[in-house]
Design brief:
Blueprint: E1 2-7, H1 13-31, E2 40-45, H2 52-64, H3 70-79, E3 88-95, E4 101-109, E5 124-129, H4 135-147, E6 164-169, H5 183-202, E7 210-218, H6 223-231, H7 234-241, H8 248-256, E8 267-272, E9 275-281, E10 284-285, H9 292-297, E11 302-308, E12 314-321, H10 325-332
Parallel strand pairs: 1-2, 5-6, 7-11
Antiparallel strand pairs: 3-4, 4-5, 7-12, 8-9, 8-11, 9-10
Helix pairs in contact: 1-2, 4-5, 6-8
Length: 336
């Protein structure tokens, strides 16, 4: 993988395509690979061209410094950042069904322009494993993990032009090749991607609070819609910033989400390390926005909203963050 930050190389036409191809060609040449074996990622300003002299010089310097050390991993995770407040890395060891211990690791960047819609600022995620895996199996496992993690986060409801997830497998663990679902491997991959997803939201531009939205008992195909609508509500995000338990904004988001439910059966709760408060019970409001228990609960930097639609059996979890003055400041002067 060769990646640059500061320039997204998006909306740059034929020149941009040639520049991306050149990045892959040079990296392949220096590492003794074929061009198609190199993944290219870019993040930063849309509509500007890559300074290829600087990029090529950087690629040569990076190849000369290649290392498998812990420090090198941290340097790589730091180098891809833009407005992120710090690097994001996760690693876990799990046991496959044949008893072999394998490692799954990942790094990510992303702080703004976050609402991924992946079939496989800007969000980039690079994953590695030493497991021996069949490519089709790995693609399927990765998609399943992405659907429950990266595809369930939102910072500002803006989907980037450059979102990317790449996963590489070396096979060095020596396990029997994974060709079908392996519980241990899938759990490990789910953990890594879920933690990276949470860290992306936690470290979002200007964010001071992480929001987890848990929807349960929804109709088939509707839990995800409901959870993402609530997590992406700018009004709720603003209320979260102020520690204001304005549950009406949750109800409004559920209403326009497309999820079908009977408001008379709806139950809403808010939870944090400080405790739990019921906002709506079976359609009955338990207090106004000034509900003292809820105000206390929302003082924490991580808040959970639990939503019971009582309309089916499906459940889903989404993650978001608050909307702050700092987010507006950063994005009001990104070019200037």
């Amino acid at each position: 993988v060769v990646a640059n930050s500061g320039c997204a190389n998006s909306f740059t036409g034929e020149r941009g395509r040639r520049d991306a191809e050149r990045m892959a060609e040079l990296t392949a040449e220096l590492l003794g690979l074929r061009t198609h074996q190199v993944g290219v990622a870019s993040t930063g300003m849309i509509g500007t061209f890559l300074p290829m002299d600087k990029v090529e010089r950087g690629i040569r310097e990076a190849v000369a410094r290649l290392s498998s050390s812990r420090r090198a991993s941290l340097e790589a995770a730091t180098a891809i950042l833009t407005t992120d407040r710090g690097p994001k890395e996760v690693a876990v060891s799990v046991e496959t069904e044949d008893g072999t211990t394998v490692t799954i690791a990942g790094m990510a960047k992303g702080a703004g322009m976050i609402r991924p819609r992946l079939k496989t600022a800007t969000m980039l995620v690079f994953l590695t494993t030493d497991a021996r895996v069949d490519p089709l199996f790995l693609r399927s496992s990765l998609q399943a993990s992405v659907d429950g993690s990266l595809n369930m986060i939102t910072v500002d409801n803006d989907t980037s032009t450059n979102d990317m997830v790449l996963m590489m497998a070396s096979g060095r663990a020596g396990n029997r090749e994974l060709k079908r679902r392996d519980r241990g491997f899938q759990l490990g991959l789910d953990f890594v991607l879920r933690e990276l997803a949470r860290e992306i939201v936690r470290g979002a531009e200007g964010a001071t609070r992480l929001m987890e939205v848990r929807v349960k008992n929804a109709r088939r195909g509707e839990a995800r819609k409901a959870a993402l609508a609530v997590a992406g509500s700018n009004l709720l995000k603003a209320a979260l910033f102020g520690g204001d338990p304005n549950w009406g904004r949750i109800v409004a988001a559920l209403g326009y989400s497309g999820a079908r439910f009977d408001p008379r059966k709806l139950t809403l709760k808010v939870r944090s390390r400080r405790g739990e408060a019921t906002l709506v019970e079976e359609g009955r409001p338990m207090g106004g926005p000034e509900l003292p228990e809820a105000v206390e609960v929302m003082r924490e930097d991580e808040v959970i909203f639990e939503i019971d639609l009582k309309a089916g059996e499906e459940e889903a979890t989404a993650w978001g963050c608050d909307l702050t003055y700092e987010y507006v400041r950063i994005n009001s002067r990104y070019r200037t």
